[in-house]
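Researcher: We're reviewing a set of sequences before deciding which ones to prioritize for further study. For each one, I'd like a predicted 3D structure that I can look through quickly. This is Sulfurtransferase. If possible, include the structure in token form so it fits the rest of the review sheet.
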Amino acid sequence: MEYHYNNEYFAADDNGYLLDHNTWSEGLAQHIAECEEITLTDAHWQIIYFVRSFYMEYDTTPAIRALVNALKAEFGPEVGNSRHLQRLLPQGPAKLASKLAGLPKPAKCL
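Model: Here's the predicted structure for Sulfurtransferase, in token form for your review sheet.
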């Protein structure tokens, strides 16, 4: 699979996760969101940037439990809770946040 955005092609696996996280950009994230039928808000961007930062620090994408706990520690319980994440990313918060952030699928997600 690949995404065609801004006259370029970006390689992705069969599930739509970018193969090279270094090719990610905000515009490409917006394009991926459109493909997933999501309109990104500031709340989405907060999660996307957090997941990218998590990946850069720990060299892994967080599964849902780790994501909730890390968000709670960083932003408090209003952001760091599974209900909030499920409302933002109903197709699977950890998986979709990682996809929008241009990162690999979380290892512990089905």
